[in-house]
Amino acid sequence: MTHRLGGRRKNVKKGFQFTLMVVGASGTGRTTFVNTLCDSNVLAKKICDNPEEAHNEEGITIKPVSVELDEDGVRISLTIVDTPGFGDNIDNEFCFQEIVGYLERQYDDILAEESRIKRNPRFRDNRVHALLYFISPTGHALREIDIELMRRLSPRVNVIPVVGRADSLIPQELKDFKRRASRMGCVMEDIEHYNIPIYNFPYDVEEDDEDTIEENSELRALLPFSIIGSDEEIVVGGRTVRGRQYPWGAVEVDNPQHSDFARLRSALLSTHLQDLKEITHDFLYENYRTEKLSRTVNGGGEQDDTAVNAEDTANQNVRMKEEQLRKEEEKLRDIELKVQREIQEKRAELLNKEEALRTLETRLAQAQIVDA
Ligand SMILES: Nc1nc2c(ncn2[C@@H]2O[C@H](COP(=O)(O)OP(=O)(O)OP(=O)(O)O)[C@@H](O)[C@H]2O)c(=O)[nH]1
Prior knowledge:
The protein is α/β, with parallel strands linked by helices. It has helices spanning 9-14, 30-38, 93-115, 144-153, 171-178, 187-193, 210-222, 261-271, 273-297, 305-371; strands at 16-24, 63-71, 74-82, 130-135, 159-163, 225-226, 233-236, 239-246, 249-252.
């Protein structure tokens, strides 16, 4: 079920917090996309690599940066988590682990916070709500590394595949690459073939309204989104627009005929922001939590901070229950004593009355004897 921003007046006033991770090999256009999305230089461009150091494998660095955006009058506090260095190494296993580890650490923080007796008012929820996976515009099927990473990340985050630098392919090539199976294979065919549970703008024909179904099926049909990014402005037919100028013509970032940038931007920051957050909390985090806690209960051997916290909470619950039972027993004992006291008082009262009756009867009998 998709939720719109408009229905949440309180949040509209306060604004929304959203965290977006961007992953993709170097040169796929991640940095330019982020800067185009935020309309400012949020991420610094990598300045020309030193050829003497090019063979050094630097590994991946995960860098969150925050930026405040105004989306049609709604404040969005957007955190971008960039992952430069992904796919640059011969062995990418370390990169996979770093990214999955980062996503899981944010869940662990929430789990630990939920288990605390006293909440930390300054606690910040850093869970990642969506991950844009940048695919190189090769025109070929997905690479093994793309399939492997999307498959590993999908259980932990809403993965949305995008084709970066989409203007590197001519429109027909791009169409074939996105959806239409050709000799080369295509992105969506691979995603379906390998059963990768990406975020596919879910809808329920029975439950959702017509507009939601229509909008979500349109967005689903655009997957993977083709992205053109540019931090430059060009003049096209007298209009100043963000785009890229070529000798043969121009491509415009915000023109839906040229790129899916505008549709993706509005899905992320407006129409589907709440849905992505809800799936993260209700489904992805909940699954992680269940896995983690059942591993702890089943003695999976993992005894980290969260496990200890969960154990503390369980012990505390037992102690609270014991205390409650003790109080109830005390209350029952008091009632019992009170009832016993009342019975004794009534019995004494009855005995007194019997005594008085007997005295009366004796006096009556004596009076009758005197009369006779
Ligand atoms: N044609 C075209 N070029 C692009 C596009 N987006 C970025 N580029 C160019 O591609 C090159 C790499 O872009 P970046 O945004 O730095 O790519 P990146 O994925 O962040 O790469 P690293 O910074 O090396 O991790 C730059 O020269 C950009 O100007 C695009 O949509 N179309």
